[in-house]
Batch of 2 targets.
Target 1
Amino acid sequence: MKKQNISDAVIRRLPRYYRHLNDLCAKGVVRISSHSLGLKMDITASQIRQDFSCFGEFGQQGYGYNVEELRAEIGHILGVDQDHHLIVIGVGNLGHALIQNFRFAQSGFTVDAAFDVSPQVVGTTLNNIPVLPMDSLEDYVKVHKIDVVVLTVPKAAVQDIVDRLTQLGIRGFWNFTNIELEAKDPEVKIENIHFSDSLLTLSYRIANN
Ligand code: NAD
């Protein structure tokens, strides 16, 4: 597969393509044109063709895309088929809600364990996931292949945890702490999630309707 330098904007559209293609597969749609996919996603057909051309030729001119094949290709590009493993640190309101409700497996992730400092949650299990004490984190990470760490701890605790885990070779962080973490090492990838960004975008749109 041809792979160029892929822009951040294209990478950020890939999960949307994947989600829409999953929906189309579930509805039994076999084939779709870039025009119809564009209408569903509110982007132009030429943008779609341009995005896909970064990764190779997926469709046939004038014939559209095979939905299942395109879904599998984009899933592969996203790494959904790579059996990624993650741990969650901080099992309070948000960590608890994610472990109980978020479908990590749909994105190709297996949740192996959770960690916390509170005796109220350490030793319990949530959705069959064991909640382990923070002082066992280093030993755990040394013997388990962990790709991503979900950060749902208080703000004050997060940098120290990231530093500890980066030293142990962890390269992916999904950060919910509302702190804008920056990777000091280019190999380390961080997604900072701010729920308020989405709400404020909506706020702008209704304020400027
Ligand atoms: P919370 O206080 O309910 O839970 C935090 C958990 O982290 C607790 O179980 C606590 O024991 C644990 N913890 C504290 N220090 C730790 C450490 N050093 N190592 C490991 N575990 C530790 O908080 P929350 O509401 O779940 O929020 C968690 C983070 O997510 C916060 O940074 C918050 O700002 C952010 N956030 C929360 C929400 C939300 O809806 N609750 C939304 C967006 C962002």
Target 2
Amino acid sequence: MNTFPIILGIESSCDDTAAAVIQKNKILSNVVAGQKVHQSYGGVVPELASRAHQQNIVPVVNEALKQAGITKDQLSAIAYTRGPGLMGSLLVGSSFAKSFSMALGIPLIEVNHMQGHILAHFIEDANEKPPEFPFLCLTVSGGHTQIVKVSDYFEMEILGETIDDAAGEAFDKAGKIMGLDYPSGPIIDKLAKQGNPERFHFSKPKVDGLNYSFSGLKTGILYFINKEVEKNHDFVNENLDDLCASIQKTIVDILMDKLIKAAKQTGIRQLAIAGGVSANSEIRERLKEFQKEKGFEVFIPKFSYTTDNAAMIAMAGQLKFELHDFSELTIPSVAKYHI
Ligand code: KG4
Ligand code: ZN
């Protein structure tokens, strides 16, 4: 093993307990334990999430060290998610990270989860090559929808964001209305492949500037489906693929319209995506079309670095380590954390 610092990343902001090890931008291990317990609730149950994190955190970290082929004594620092997220979930990761860094006598590094999603682009195998500054990043997850201008690793400006629901929530709530399990995003993505996206039309929000809104779409879908189900009880089952394709197209149209508007306004030609919803196949396809037809340079990260993971936290941690940007043990976790 050479002498470059080795950082352990820990992520526990929502319902995934994750640990990863990085050295010189290269991920040595990336372990995620999801939580099936929320599937039938239509969303994450915070109390159940913190309990599952408590059970998972030690085995997940052990596994990450094992897969990386290192022992804890070889670690140079511990990076962890400080926020944003569910407080009970964040506290499990932060308490573990603080105790571990204290026991090993190595630095503690706090990471903003949303910055982590964006900085995942700098992991060696995330893309063919990393984006250059400045670039625009559409950061779309279960809790956030933001267009971010990234001028440097830790110099980020939100140009637009959702004024109500996040794009991931729009997928998940639409899924709940159709009786699908949580999280519905990946299920809708899969079913949409066999459906007709032009079959149903849902009205798009009119929001100023580069901001987004998804709550009206959710209500529109609910009213439409309720009305159709009154006429035919089996409406959802009989039309599930077309419903998924039409809903997905509407959400992706809304996301892409504002991203292109942001590119026009700023003159920035490099476009990236990040966050769980960026795993969506239609978003990825649409961006590739932008590259071919409009000449943008696009950056689409590897799947395993899109939904919540600790590799992105380890990456952000390594960049902070290089800046000697360390944290005190007294630093509190925060449910809201502006990038
Ligand atoms: O980033 P993430 O793993 O967790 C948060 O920080 O929120 O994002 C989770 C969100 C969920 O809403 C999930 O439905 C959505 O990402 N998602 C997808 C896909 N995979 C995950 N949405 C659409 N298509 C997908 N393939
Ligand atoms: Zn996330």
